[in-house]
Amino acid sequence: MKKLITLSLAIFAAVQLIAQVQFNPQIGITTLSLKNPPSGVTFDGKIGMNLGADLRFGEKFQIQPGVHYINSITAFQSTDAEVETGEVVYKSLKIKALAAFNLIDAGQLKLRINAGPSYDFLLSAKEKESKINVKEDYKNGTFFLQGGVGVDFLFLTADLGYAHGLSQTFAGEGAPDSKMAGMYFTVGVIFGKGKK
After folding, report:
1. Which of 64, 77, 120, 173 has a CA that sits 20 to 30 A from residue 23's CA?
2. Cα(49)–Cα(146) distance, integer angstroms
3. pLDDT band at 4 (very low <50, low <70, confident <90, very high)
């Protein structure tokens, strides 16, 4: 009897959780630059692409895991005797686990803040013009702390945020303080829990 009650409660809790789940596919833009670059080089972020989806669990307070494909571009310029310029194209897979809170919940209009950790798995890094593979110059992944604001209207959603790298960008000991950072803006739709 005790097992039956426990199983019933577990099923009830799972059904309630699923009833509060939303699916949020998104597309957007991103910029990624380098803070504290190696001596003699500057890096500036250019506009890249963000494509992915989040799940939202909860109502006023939400847990928001997600997976996104990131294609970002960083322009570099050396300041040594021989000036070199170029762009590096990074392709990565971002796994994130944010917590969100609705500051305004007016039915069809919601304003929320979110923050949490994310991790970018570096898939490739190539110089744009020459197509030279420079992935071995970088760590295989980067931890970020990211946060932002978002708005939902009817079944549409938009997010604006900032991600700051917490781990070293380059492989080796050459630039231990170099960390990635950037802005992102996404738009999408919301499925589930009465949306769409």
Report:
1. 120
2. 17
3. low
